[in-house]
Protein backbone atom coordinates (compact mmCIF):
# COMPACT_ATOMS: atom_id res chain seq x y z
CA UNK A 1 0.00 0.00 0.00
CA UNK A 2 1.40 3.40 -1.02
CA UNK A 3 2.18 5.79 1.81
CA UNK A 4 2.42 9.54 1.61
CA UNK A 5 2.64 12.41 4.06
CA UNK A 6 0.74 15.69 4.27
CA UNK A 7 2.25 18.61 6.18
CA UNK A 8 -0.11 21.56 6.77
CA UNK A 9 0.82 24.92 8.30
CA UNK A 10 -1.79 27.35 9.62
CA UNK A 11 -0.43 30.91 9.57
CA UNK A 12 -2.32 32.50 12.45
CA UNK A 13 -1.94 35.91 14.05
CA UNK A 14 -1.09 34.54 17.52
CA UNK A 15 0.19 31.02 16.74
CA UNK A 16 1.60 29.15 13.76
CA UNK A 17 0.52 25.50 13.80
CA UNK A 18 1.88 22.45 12.01
CA UNK A 19 0.03 19.18 11.47
CA UNK A 20 1.50 16.09 9.79
CA UNK A 21 -0.72 13.25 8.55
CA UNK A 22 0.18 9.82 7.21
CA UNK A 23 -2.06 8.69 4.34
CA UNK A 24 -2.25 4.97 3.58
CA UNK A 25 -4.84 4.39 0.89
CA UNK A 26 -8.19 5.46 2.34
CA UNK A 27 -6.85 5.59 5.89
CA UNK A 28 -5.50 8.89 7.23
CA UNK A 29 -3.78 9.31 10.59
CA UNK A 30 -2.56 12.59 12.04
CA UNK A 31 0.77 11.65 13.61
CA UNK A 32 2.03 15.08 14.70
CA UNK A 33 0.62 18.42 15.82
CA UNK A 34 2.51 21.37 17.28
CA UNK A 35 2.35 25.15 17.41
CA UNK A 36 4.60 28.06 18.27
CA UNK A 37 3.95 31.76 19.03
CA UNK A 38 3.56 33.65 15.79
CA UNK A 39 5.95 36.30 14.51
CA UNK A 40 5.73 38.37 11.35
CA UNK A 41 1.95 37.75 10.95
CA UNK A 42 -0.71 40.41 11.50
CA UNK A 43 -4.47 40.08 10.88
CA UNK A 44 -3.80 36.65 9.42
CA UNK A 45 -1.38 37.96 6.76
CA UNK A 46 2.41 37.76 6.60
CA UNK A 47 4.01 41.20 6.81
CA UNK A 48 7.56 40.19 7.80
CA UNK A 49 8.66 37.12 5.80
CA UNK A 50 11.99 36.76 7.59
CA UNK A 51 10.52 36.50 11.09
CA UNK A 52 7.67 34.30 9.91
CA UNK A 53 10.07 32.05 8.01
CA UNK A 54 12.16 31.54 11.13
CA UNK A 55 9.13 30.28 13.06
CA UNK A 56 8.14 27.95 10.21
CA UNK A 57 11.66 26.49 10.13
CA UNK A 58 11.56 26.01 13.90
CA UNK A 59 8.35 23.98 13.65
CA UNK A 60 9.65 21.88 10.77
CA UNK A 61 12.92 21.06 12.55
CA UNK A 62 11.08 19.81 15.63
CA UNK A 63 8.73 17.67 13.54
CA UNK A 64 11.56 16.14 11.48
CA UNK A 65 13.55 15.31 14.60
CA UNK A 66 10.60 13.58 16.28
CA UNK A 67 9.16 11.76 13.27
CA UNK A 68 12.52 10.89 11.64
CA UNK A 69 11.30 12.17 8.26
CA UNK A 70 12.36 14.90 5.86
CA UNK A 71 9.63 17.45 5.05
CA UNK A 72 10.27 19.02 1.65
CA UNK A 73 6.95 20.82 1.00
CA UNK A 74 3.79 21.99 2.80
CA UNK A 75 0.24 23.13 2.21
CA UNK A 76 -0.88 26.37 3.82
CA UNK A 77 -3.70 28.92 3.91
CA UNK A 78 -4.38 32.30 2.33
CA UNK A 79 -5.17 35.27 4.62
CA UNK A 80 -8.81 35.82 5.58
CA UNK A 81 -9.06 39.58 5.79
CA UNK A 82 -9.16 41.93 2.82
CA UNK A 83 -10.93 39.38 0.62
CA UNK A 84 -13.84 40.33 -1.61
CA UNK A 85 -16.31 37.94 -3.22
CA UNK A 86 -17.53 38.07 -6.81
CA UNK A 87 -19.80 35.93 -8.98
CA UNK A 88 -18.47 34.27 -12.13
CA UNK A 89 -20.16 32.17 -14.80
CA UNK A 90 -18.81 29.86 -17.44
CA UNK A 91 -20.15 27.74 -20.29
CA UNK A 92 -18.70 24.57 -21.77
CA UNK A 93 -20.01 23.35 -25.15
CA UNK A 94 -20.10 19.56 -25.32
CA UNK A 95 -18.78 17.71 -28.35
CA UNK A 96 -21.00 14.67 -27.76
CA UNK A 97 -24.47 15.80 -26.55
CA UNK A 98 -25.62 12.20 -26.15
CA UNK A 99 -22.98 11.28 -23.56
CA UNK A 100 -23.28 11.73 -19.80
CA UNK A 101 -21.69 14.66 -18.02
CA UNK A 102 -18.56 13.59 -16.13
CA UNK A 103 -16.56 14.95 -13.19
CA UNK A 104 -13.71 15.82 -15.56
CA UNK A 105 -16.00 18.12 -17.52
CA UNK A 106 -17.01 19.91 -14.33
CA UNK A 107 -13.34 20.48 -13.49
CA UNK A 108 -12.70 21.81 -16.99
CA UNK A 109 -15.66 24.17 -16.71
CA UNK A 110 -14.34 25.51 -13.40
CA UNK A 111 -10.89 26.14 -14.86
CA UNK A 112 -12.39 27.91 -17.88
CA UNK A 113 -14.52 30.13 -15.63
CA UNK A 114 -11.55 31.11 -13.45
CA UNK A 115 -9.22 31.77 -16.37
CA UNK A 116 -11.75 33.91 -18.19
CA UNK A 117 -12.77 36.03 -15.19
CA UNK A 118 -11.64 39.65 -15.73
CA UNK A 119 -9.78 40.84 -12.64
CA UNK A 120 -9.61 44.59 -12.07
CA UNK A 121 -5.82 44.39 -11.89
CA UNK A 122 -4.18 41.02 -12.45
CA UNK A 123 -0.84 42.41 -11.26
CA UNK A 124 -2.14 43.10 -7.74
CA UNK A 125 -5.11 40.71 -7.41
CA UNK A 126 -5.30 36.93 -7.12
CA UNK A 127 -8.18 34.45 -6.93
CA UNK A 128 -7.81 32.66 -3.57
CA UNK A 129 -10.64 30.18 -4.11
CA UNK A 130 -13.83 29.38 -5.98
CA UNK A 131 -16.98 27.62 -4.75
CA UNK A 132 -19.62 26.16 -7.05
CA UNK A 133 -23.05 27.68 -6.52
CA UNK A 134 -25.09 25.83 -9.16
CA UNK A 135 -25.07 24.28 -12.64
CA UNK A 136 -27.47 24.60 -15.55
CA UNK A 137 -28.20 22.38 -18.54
CA UNK A 138 -30.68 22.69 -21.43
CA UNK A 139 -33.55 21.52 -19.24
CA UNK A 140 -32.53 22.25 -15.65
CA UNK A 141 -31.30 25.27 -13.72
CA UNK A 142 -29.86 25.53 -10.21
CA UNK A 143 -28.73 21.92 -10.37
CA UNK A 144 -26.33 20.74 -7.70
CA UNK A 145 -22.96 19.15 -8.44
CA UNK A 146 -24.11 15.71 -7.30
CA UNK A 147 -27.18 15.89 -9.53
CA UNK A 148 -25.60 17.20 -12.71
CA UNK A 149 -23.03 14.38 -13.01
CA UNK A 150 -24.63 11.76 -15.24
CA UNK A 151 -27.08 14.11 -16.99
CA UNK A 152 -27.25 14.33 -20.80
CA UNK A 153 -27.17 17.78 -22.36
CA UNK A 154 -25.71 19.65 -25.32
CA UNK A 155 -24.40 22.47 -23.10
CA UNK A 156 -23.24 22.94 -19.51
CA UNK A 157 -23.15 26.18 -17.53
CA UNK A 158 -21.70 26.85 -14.08
CA UNK A 159 -22.06 29.62 -11.50
CA UNK A 160 -19.18 30.23 -9.06
CA UNK A 161 -18.45 32.45 -6.08
CA UNK A 162 -14.89 33.74 -6.29
CA UNK A 163 -12.79 34.98 -3.38
CA UNK A 164 -10.30 37.60 -4.57
CA UNK A 165 -7.42 38.87 -2.45
CA UNK A 166 -4.07 40.62 -2.66
CA UNK A 167 -1.35 39.02 -4.77
CA UNK A 168 1.33 40.76 -2.74
CA UNK A 169 0.14 39.04 0.43
CA UNK A 170 0.41 35.69 -1.33
CA UNK A 171 3.94 36.59 -2.45
CA UNK A 172 4.88 37.30 1.17
CA UNK A 173 3.83 33.75 2.10
CA UNK A 174 6.08 32.43 -0.68
CA UNK A 175 8.96 34.57 0.59
CA UNK A 176 8.52 33.34 4.17
CA UNK A 177 8.59 29.70 3.02
CA UNK A 178 11.64 30.37 0.84
CA UNK A 179 13.46 31.72 3.88
CA UNK A 180 12.39 28.59 5.78
CA UNK A 181 13.81 26.49 2.90
CA UNK A 182 10.50 24.73 2.27
CA UNK A 183 8.42 24.52 -0.90
CA UNK A 184 4.67 25.14 -1.09
CA UNK A 185 2.65 22.34 -2.66
CA UNK A 186 -0.65 24.27 -2.60
CA UNK A 187 -2.53 27.07 -0.86
CA UNK A 188 -6.17 26.94 0.18
CA UNK A 189 -8.67 29.56 1.24
CA UNK A 190 -9.22 28.89 4.96
CA UNK A 191 -12.99 29.47 5.22
CA UNK A 192 -13.53 27.07 2.32
CA UNK A 193 -11.89 24.16 4.18
CA UNK A 194 -12.82 24.99 7.79
CA UNK A 195 -16.50 24.17 7.34
CA UNK A 196 -15.68 20.65 6.16
CA UNK A 197 -13.66 20.05 9.32
CA UNK A 198 -16.29 21.27 11.81
CA UNK A 199 -19.79 21.19 10.32
CA UNK A 200 -22.03 18.24 9.58
CA UNK A 201 -23.79 17.77 6.26
CA UNK A 202 -27.14 18.21 8.01
CA UNK A 203 -26.09 21.62 9.38
CA UNK A 204 -24.90 22.83 5.97
CA UNK A 205 -28.14 21.64 4.36
CA UNK A 206 -30.41 23.35 6.88
CA UNK A 207 -28.41 26.57 7.00
CA UNK A 208 -25.65 27.47 9.46
CA UNK A 209 -23.17 30.27 10.12
CA UNK A 210 -19.63 29.24 11.05
CA UNK A 211 -17.82 31.95 13.02
CA UNK A 212 -14.06 31.52 13.38
CA UNK A 213 -12.73 33.70 16.19
CA UNK A 214 -8.99 34.09 15.68
CA UNK A 215 -6.48 36.39 17.32
CA UNK A 216 -6.30 39.00 14.56
CA UNK A 217 -9.34 38.21 12.38
CA UNK A 218 -12.90 37.05 13.06
CA UNK A 219 -14.64 35.56 10.03
CA UNK A 220 -18.10 34.21 9.22
CA UNK A 221 -19.03 31.67 6.55
CA UNK A 222 -22.72 31.10 5.79
CA UNK A 223 -23.90 27.74 4.37
CA UNK A 224 -27.31 26.95 2.93
CA UNK A 225 -28.48 23.88 1.01
CA UNK A 226 -25.05 22.35 1.38
CA UNK A 227 -23.22 25.22 -0.37
CA UNK A 228 -21.04 28.07 0.89
CA UNK A 229 -23.15 31.13 0.07
CA UNK A 230 -21.44 34.07 1.81
CA UNK A 231 -18.18 35.06 3.50
CA UNK A 232 -17.18 38.09 5.55
CA UNK A 233 -14.40 39.09 7.98
CA UNK A 234 -13.39 41.88 10.37
CA UNK A 235 -9.85 42.73 11.58
CA UNK A 236 -10.62 42.18 15.28
CA UNK A 237 -10.22 39.15 17.48
CA UNK A 238 -8.64 37.81 20.63
CA UNK A 239 -5.66 40.15 20.38
CA UNK A 240 -8.01 43.14 20.62
CA UNK A 241 -9.29 41.78 23.94
CA UNK A 242 -5.73 41.35 25.21
CA UNK A 243 -4.92 44.95 24.22
CA UNK A 244 -7.96 46.22 26.14
CA UNK A 245 -6.82 44.38 29.28
CA UNK A 246 -3.33 45.81 28.91
CA UNK A 247 -4.58 49.39 28.48
CA UNK A 248 -7.01 49.20 31.41
CA UNK A 249 -4.72 47.43 33.89
CA UNK A 250 -1.27 48.64 32.85
CA UNK A 251 0.12 45.10 32.58
CA UNK A 252 2.50 43.90 29.91
CA UNK A 253 1.22 42.23 26.72
CA UNK A 254 2.29 38.71 27.73
CA UNK A 255 0.92 39.09 31.27
CA UNK A 256 -2.39 40.38 29.95
CA UNK A 257 -2.65 37.40 27.57
CA UNK A 258 -1.97 34.93 30.40
CA UNK A 259 -4.57 36.57 32.64
CA UNK A 260 -7.13 36.41 29.82
CA UNK A 261 -6.48 32.72 29.20
CA UNK A 262 -6.56 31.79 32.89
CA UNK A 263 -9.41 33.95 34.22
CA UNK A 264 -11.10 35.47 31.14
CA UNK A 265 -14.89 35.16 30.89
CA UNK A 266 -17.90 36.97 29.46
CA UNK A 267 -21.11 38.00 31.26
CA UNK A 268 -19.86 38.97 34.76
CA UNK A 269 -23.39 38.58 36.18
CA UNK A 270 -23.26 34.83 35.44
CA UNK A 271 -19.94 34.17 37.15
CA UNK A 272 -21.63 33.72 40.58
CA UNK A 273 -19.05 33.67 43.39
CA UNK A 274 -16.08 33.97 41.02
CA UNK A 275 -16.93 37.61 40.29
CA UNK A 276 -16.13 38.50 43.92
CA UNK A 277 -12.54 37.30 43.62
CA UNK A 278 -9.65 39.72 43.28
CA UNK A 279 -6.37 38.86 41.56
CA UNK A 280 -3.15 40.11 43.12
CA UNK A 281 -0.72 40.35 40.24
CA UNK A 282 3.03 40.56 40.80
CA UNK A 283 4.44 42.59 37.90
CA UNK A 284 8.10 42.11 38.90
CA UNK A 285 10.90 44.69 38.42
CA UNK A 286 10.41 46.03 41.97
CA UNK A 287 6.88 47.20 41.10
CA UNK A 288 4.33 46.81 43.91
CA UNK A 289 1.67 44.11 43.29
CA UNK A 290 -1.55 45.29 41.64
CA UNK A 291 -5.10 44.13 42.26
CA UNK A 292 -7.52 43.24 39.48
CA UNK A 293 -11.12 42.28 40.13
CA UNK A 294 -12.44 39.26 38.22
CA UNK A 295 -15.69 41.13 37.70
CA UNK A 296 -13.94 44.15 36.19
CA UNK A 297 -11.84 41.84 34.00
CA UNK A 298 -15.03 40.18 32.75
CA UNK A 299 -16.60 43.55 31.99
CA UNK A 300 -13.58 44.50 29.83
CA UNK A 301 -13.77 41.21 27.92
CA UNK A 302 -17.55 41.31 27.50
CA UNK A 303 -17.53 44.82 26.04
CA UNK A 304 -15.03 43.93 23.32
CA UNK A 305 -16.45 40.46 22.63
CA UNK A 306 -19.93 41.90 22.22
CA UNK A 307 -18.63 44.46 19.74
CA UNK A 308 -16.95 41.72 17.67
CA UNK A 309 -20.03 39.47 17.65
CA UNK A 310 -22.35 42.32 16.67
CA UNK A 311 -20.12 43.11 13.68
CA UNK A 312 -20.30 39.46 12.63
CA UNK A 313 -24.09 39.46 12.99
CA UNK A 314 -24.15 42.44 10.64
CA UNK A 315 -22.38 40.28 8.02
CA UNK A 316 -24.96 37.52 8.53
CA UNK A 317 -27.73 40.03 7.86
CA UNK A 318 -25.86 41.21 4.78
CA UNK A 319 -25.77 37.66 3.41
CA UNK A 320 -29.57 37.69 3.08
CA UNK A 321 -29.77 34.27 4.79
CA UNK A 322 -30.24 35.37 8.39
CA UNK A 323 -33.73 33.85 8.49
CA UNK A 324 -32.62 30.56 6.91
CA UNK A 325 -30.12 29.42 9.55
CA UNK A 326 -32.10 26.47 10.93
CA UNK A 327 -28.97 25.02 12.50
CA UNK A 328 -28.00 28.30 14.14
CA UNK A 329 -24.39 29.34 14.67
CA UNK A 330 -21.24 27.31 15.29
CA UNK A 331 -18.28 29.00 17.02
CA UNK A 332 -14.72 27.81 16.39
CA UNK A 333 -11.19 29.18 16.66
CA UNK A 334 -9.14 29.92 19.77
CA UNK A 335 -11.12 33.06 20.67
CA UNK A 336 -14.36 31.15 21.27
CA UNK A 337 -12.90 29.26 24.25
CA UNK A 338 -13.45 32.18 26.64
CA UNK A 339 -16.08 31.24 29.20
CA UNK A 340 -19.68 32.26 28.34
CA UNK A 341 -18.85 33.37 24.77
CA UNK A 342 -21.54 31.08 23.35
CA UNK A 343 -24.06 32.34 25.92
CA UNK A 344 -23.24 35.95 25.03
CA UNK A 345 -23.88 35.30 21.33
CA UNK A 346 -27.11 33.47 22.11
CA UNK A 347 -28.36 36.40 24.24
CA UNK A 348 -27.73 39.05 21.60
CA UNK A 349 -28.75 37.04 18.50
CA UNK A 350 -31.38 34.49 19.54
CA UNK A 351 -29.68 31.73 17.51
CA UNK A 352 -28.85 28.34 18.90
CA UNK A 353 -25.08 28.29 19.42
CA UNK A 354 -22.54 25.51 19.89
CA UNK A 355 -18.73 25.35 20.14
CA UNK A 356 -17.26 23.51 17.15
CA UNK A 357 -14.01 21.52 17.31
CA UNK A 358 -12.59 19.41 14.46
CA UNK A 359 -14.66 16.29 13.94
CA UNK A 360 -13.01 12.88 14.28
CA UNK A 361 -12.34 12.13 10.65
CA UNK A 362 -8.90 10.70 11.39
CA UNK A 363 -7.28 8.40 13.88
CA UNK A 364 -4.93 10.44 16.03
CA UNK A 365 -3.22 10.48 19.38
CA UNK A 366 -1.90 14.04 19.22
CA UNK A 367 -2.68 16.55 21.94
CA UNK A 368 -4.45 19.76 20.92
CA UNK A 369 -6.36 18.41 17.91
CA UNK A 370 -9.64 18.41 19.81
CA UNK A 371 -9.35 22.15 20.37
CA UNK A 372 -11.26 24.70 18.22
CA UNK A 373 -7.89 26.37 17.59
CA UNK A 374 -6.86 23.39 15.39
CA UNK A 375 -9.80 23.75 12.97
CA UNK A 376 -7.90 25.38 10.11
CA UNK A 377 -4.97 22.97 10.28
CA UNK A 378 -7.28 19.93 10.16
CA UNK A 379 -9.25 21.48 7.29
CA UNK A 380 -6.05 21.92 5.27
CA UNK A 381 -5.16 18.24 5.76
CA UNK A 382 -8.67 17.16 4.72
CA UNK A 383 -8.46 19.16 1.51
CA UNK A 384 -4.90 18.10 0.64
CA UNK A 385 -5.56 14.37 1.06
CA UNK A 386 -8.01 14.50 -1.89
CA UNK A 387 -5.10 15.13 -4.24
CA UNK A 388 -3.03 11.99 -4.73
CA UNK A 389 -0.04 13.91 -6.15
CA UNK A 390 0.60 15.73 -2.86
CA UNK A 391 3.35 14.05 -0.84
CA UNK A 392 5.05 16.47 1.53
CA UNK A 393 7.69 14.26 3.16
CA UNK A 394 9.71 11.09 2.86
CA UNK A 395 11.81 8.84 5.05
CA UNK A 396 15.51 9.36 4.32
CA UNK A 397 17.36 6.16 3.51
CA UNK A 398 20.28 5.18 5.69
CA UNK A 399 23.44 5.44 3.64
CA UNK A 400 26.39 3.27 4.62
CA UNK A 401 29.61 5.08 3.87
CA UNK A 402 32.94 3.22 3.70
CA UNK A 403 35.27 5.14 5.93
CA UNK A 404 38.97 5.15 5.04
CA UNK A 405 41.22 3.88 7.87
CA UNK A 406 43.01 6.67 9.72
CA UNK A 407 46.58 7.34 8.66
CA UNK A 408 49.23 5.96 11.02
CA UNK A 409 52.99 5.95 11.09
CA UNK A 410 54.59 2.58 11.68
CA UNK A 411 57.50 2.92 14.05
CA UNK A 412 58.00 -0.79 14.25
CA UNK A 413 56.40 -3.21 11.79
CA UNK A 414 55.27 -5.59 14.51
CA UNK A 415 53.43 -2.91 16.57
CA UNK A 416 49.76 -2.06 15.81
CA UNK A 417 48.15 0.69 17.93
CA UNK A 418 44.77 -0.33 19.44
CA UNK A 419 41.61 1.54 18.36
CA UNK A 420 39.85 3.62 20.99
CA UNK A 421 36.23 2.48 21.70
CA UNK A 422 33.49 4.96 20.64
CA UNK A 423 30.71 5.94 23.10
CA UNK A 424 28.51 7.54 20.46
CA UNK A 425 25.12 5.92 19.72
CA UNK A 426 24.47 4.92 16.12
CA UNK A 427 22.71 7.72 14.25
CA UNK A 428 19.14 7.31 13.05
CA UNK A 429 17.42 9.02 10.15
CA UNK A 430 19.89 11.31 8.42
CA UNK A 431 23.46 10.13 8.00
CA UNK A 432 26.13 12.73 8.07
CA UNK A 433 29.41 11.85 6.49
CA UNK A 434 32.30 12.89 8.71
CA UNK A 435 35.95 13.05 7.84
CA UNK A 436 38.04 10.49 9.73
CA UNK A 437 39.95 12.01 12.61
CA UNK A 438 43.69 11.46 12.76
CA UNK A 439 44.82 9.68 15.92
CA UNK A 440 46.80 11.70 18.39
CA UNK A 441 50.54 11.05 18.26
CA UNK A 442 51.99 9.68 21.43
CA UNK A 443 55.52 10.55 22.45
CA UNK A 444 57.55 7.37 22.07
CA UNK A 445 61.14 7.04 23.28
CA UNK A 446 63.18 5.10 20.76
CA UNK A 447 65.52 2.51 22.26
CA UNK A 448 68.56 1.73 20.12
CA UNK A 449 69.46 -1.98 19.97
CA UNK A 450 72.98 -2.89 21.30
CA UNK A 451 75.75 -3.02 18.75
CA UNK A 452 77.04 -6.53 18.00
CA UNK A 453 80.61 -7.24 19.15
CA UNK A 454 83.13 -7.22 16.34
CA UNK A 455 85.45 -10.15 15.79
CA UNK A 456 89.16 -9.27 16.05
CA UNK A 457 90.75 -8.70 12.71
CA UNK A 458 93.68 -10.85 11.57
CA UNK A 459 96.92 -8.88 11.82
CA UNK A 460 99.22 -9.25 8.85
CA UNK A 461 102.98 -9.01 9.73
CA UNK A 462 105.62 -7.75 7.34
CA UNK A 463 107.84 -10.40 5.69
CA UNK A 464 110.99 -9.40 7.52
CA UNK A 465 109.19 -9.59 10.83
CA UNK A 466 107.80 -13.00 9.93
CA UNK A 467 111.36 -14.33 9.20
CA UNK A 468 112.64 -13.10 12.56
CA UNK A 469 109.78 -14.87 14.26
CA UNK A 470 110.46 -18.11 12.44
CA UNK A 471 114.14 -17.88 13.35
CA UNK A 472 113.27 -17.32 17.01
CA UNK A 473 110.88 -20.29 17.05
CA UNK A 474 113.60 -22.58 15.50
CA UNK A 475 116.18 -21.32 17.96
CA UNK A 476 113.93 -21.89 20.96
CA UNK A 477 112.97 -25.38 19.76
CA UNK A 478 116.66 -26.36 19.35
CA UNK A 479 117.46 -25.10 22.83
CA UNK A 480 114.60 -27.13 24.32
CA UNK A 481 115.83 -30.34 22.63
CA UNK A 482 119.36 -29.83 23.92
CA UNK A 483 118.18 -29.20 27.42
CA UNK A 484 116.16 -32.39 27.41
CA UNK A 485 119.19 -34.47 26.28
CA UNK A 486 121.37 -33.01 29.03
CA UNK A 487 118.83 -33.88 31.61
CA UNK A 488 118.57 -37.44 30.43
CA UNK A 489 122.35 -37.89 30.50
CA UNK A 490 122.64 -36.71 33.97
CATH topology type of the domain at 201-358: Nucleotidyltransferase, domain 5
CATH class of the domain at 201-358: Alpha Beta
Distinct helical segment count: 12
Shape: globular
The count of strands amounts to 20
Ends distance: 132 Å
As residue ranges, the low-confidence spans are: 399-404, 407-434, 441-448, 453-459, 478-490
Q: Mean pLDDT score, rounded?
A: 84
Structural class comes to alpha/beta
Strand order of the largest sheet: 11-7-1-2-3-19
Helix percentage: 25-40%
Oligomer: single chain
Corresponding CATH superfamily of the domain at 201-358: ATPase, nucleotide binding domain
CATH architect. name of the domain at 201-358: 2-Layer Sandwich
Biggest pleated-sheet summary:
6 strands, mixed
Gist?
The chain has 490 residues and is α/β, with parallel strands linked by helices.
Features:
disordered C terminus; single chain; alpha/beta; 12 helices; Nucleotidyltransferase, domain 5; 490 residues
Description:
The protein has 490 residues and is of the alpha/beta class. The protein has a domain at 201-358: Nucleotidyltransferase, domain 5 (2-Layer Sandwich), CATH 3.30.420.40. Helix content is 33%, strand content 25%. It is built from twelve helices and 20 strands. The protein has helices spanning 49-67, 103-116, 145-148, 167-179, 190-198, 201-206, 238-249, 253-263, 294-319, 341-349, 375-384, 463-489; strands at 3-11, 15-24, 27-37, 41-42, 45-46, 70-71, 73-78, 84-93, 125-136, 155-166, 183-189, 208-213, 218-224, 227-234, 278-281, 290-293, 329-332, 353-355, 363-364, 393-394. The strands form six sheets. A six-stranded mixed sheet has the order 11-7-1-2-3-19, sandwiched between helices. Strands 14-13-12-17-18 form a five-stranded mixed sheet, with helices on both faces. It has a three-stranded antiparallel sheet with strand order 8-10-9. A hairpin with an 8-residue loop joins β15 (278-281) and β16. α5 packs across α11 (375-384) and α7 (238-249) crosses α8 (253-263). It is globular. The termini are far apart.
Amino acid sequence: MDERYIAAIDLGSSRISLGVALVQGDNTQIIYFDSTPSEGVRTGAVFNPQRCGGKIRELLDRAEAELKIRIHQIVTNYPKYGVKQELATGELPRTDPTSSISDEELDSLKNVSLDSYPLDNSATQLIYGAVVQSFATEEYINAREDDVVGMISAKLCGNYKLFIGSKRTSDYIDAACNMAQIAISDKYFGPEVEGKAVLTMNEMENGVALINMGAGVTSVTVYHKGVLRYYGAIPFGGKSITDDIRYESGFSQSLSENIKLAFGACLPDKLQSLSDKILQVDCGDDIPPRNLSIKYLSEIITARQKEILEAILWHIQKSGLADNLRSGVVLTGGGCELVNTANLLKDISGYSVRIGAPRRFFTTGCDGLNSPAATTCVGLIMEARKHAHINCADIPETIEVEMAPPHKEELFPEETPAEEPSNEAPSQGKVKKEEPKKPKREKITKVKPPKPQREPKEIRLPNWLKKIGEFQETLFDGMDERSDDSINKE
